[in-house]
């Protein structure tokens, strides 16, 4: 005979209104730590996708990144920056990268560290030119230190062009760096830098710093998850602050011990303090095609900015 409670049907329909959970400051910090670790793993997978930049030799990509950043910073015309923006966007599409997740970060950086900072340059106080919109009017002009404040403070046409040029310069520089990082593993970037005779101590410091940040982030996340599952919501705020303060030194020591274990394992495998790369692949036909395309793009930008001006 089947018991009556086994014959009862329970409703498994989800609630109509979703409950929003407000994260604490510590939870938000841990979320950012997890995002850093996830991004590190995701770059490894995106660098192994079948795309345009993934098929290019890392040495060519490093040169491409450095030359492109220099070219972007030498470019002064807004039209040229728009052209470079579309070219980089095309590279993202051909490399099969996620545009929304990538450009959401890039445009946010460009807006905060570009547009908001350079916005005062659109005023006639800093950039003289044709006034488009008057913001303030005074009875007379003023002289403050080396700046002359005119009778009317307005937004100028030349100032807007300057702001957009500087903002696009930042956006294009960040996007090209993200593009190369997303399509190249950290190890290949270090290997490419060694090919260009970068000092070994610099490469070693860069590599070990990257590894230590990764180990520290993972240790902090694991310690917080363990603490939260065992106690976090059962005590007062004062007790939580004391425990967190005490755990900071512990997590630093634990992460340093892990870091030392990694270093000892490197020594056990023959590491002598120098970075050695004994094998570099030969450049393929696709690498030379990519170099030719980049030369054509760079020549077009140079002609647009320095010849046909």
Looking at this protein, list some descriptive labels.
2 domains, 4 strands, mainly alpha, 309 residues, extended, two-stranded antiparallel sheet, 10 helices, two-stranded antiparallel ribbon
| Share of residues in strands | 5-15%
**What topology, given as strand order, has the largest sheet?**
1-4
Estimated radius of gyration: 27 Å
Shape: extended
* Mean model confidence by pLDDT: 78
Query: What is the N-to-C succession of helices and strands?
Result: HHHHHEEEEHHHHH
Q: What class, by secondary structure content?
A: mainly alpha
Q: Report the total helices.
A: 10
State the helical fraction: 55-70%
Report the biggest beta sheet as strand number plus sense, adding barrel if it closes.
2 strands, antiparallel
What is the count of β-strands? 4
Distance between the termini: 93 Å
Number of domains: 2
Low-confidence stretches: none
